[in-house]
């Protein structure tokens, strides 16, 4: 056959819009890109329109995301009119059933006992348990949870394939960026944790952090 069509699951970053102030959106995207440029490069992005009632300028939104390094691919939580407008601009429509993660049976675990150094990237399709620090410029990615028994100074991305129940645990939160199921925060948005052990979870499309 000349062409095979197969269903698959890929991690997508979610950009939740709270307003349509395009200059402000451009500034926020530029600030976040400056904090974690590697996260934005060629990253497929979904626009979450749950908080937007009016009709967005999808061409403008696509331009802003593209200029930040991301690749806009779809919208989510949209009205019927928003869906029609987005479709005209070449964006796919994600429904609740498509965006809901299916739990994996018997998730596996990988242990890392050496420090993860700058420039290294580790990915595992299960839970990652790292018994060492994660340095600035390093990136650890898991489809499940991430446990770091040491300082997190780089980037940690849990629930990479959309598992919204995934969590991140670390003994010292000094990260450049953390993400769960595509929802992320950069260091300037972190609450003061005073180098305590921290749990990070996803609740209503926002990351919540609490000390343990």
Automatic annotation (TrEMBL):
State the taxonomy lineage. Answer: Bacteria, Pseudomonadati, Pseudomonadota, Gammaproteobacteria, Oceanospirillales
Q: What is this protein called?
A: Probable septum site-determining protein MinC
InterPro entries xref list: CAP/MinC_C (IPR016098), MinC (IPR013033), MinC_C_sf (IPR036145), MinC_N (IPR007874), Septum_form_inhib_MinC_C (IPR005526)
Subunit composition and interactions = Interacts with MinD and FtsZ.
PANTHER family the record matches:
SEPTUM SITE-DETERMINING PROTEIN MINC (PTHR34108)
Q: What is this protein for, i.e. what is its function?
A: Cell division inhibitor that blocks the formation of polar Z ring septums. Rapidly oscillates between the poles of the cell to destabilize FtsZ filaments that have formed before they mature into polar Z rings. Prevents FtsZ polymerization.
- HAMAP family in UniProt: MinC
Pfam families of this UniProt entry? MinC_C, MinC_N
Task: Write down the Gene3D superfamilies for this protein, in alphabetical order.
Answer: 2.160.20.70, 3.30.70.260
Stretches that traverse the bilayer: none
Q: What keywords is this UniProt entry annotated with?
A: Cell cycle, Cell division, Septation
Domain Septum formation inhibitor MinC N-terminal, chain residue ranges per copy: 3-72
Would you kindly state one Gene Ontology biological process term found in this protein's UniProt entry?
division septum assembly
Top-rank taxon, per record: Bacteria
Q: What's the family?
A: Belongs to the MinC family.
The Septum formation inhibitor MinC C-terminal domain, residue ranges: 112-208
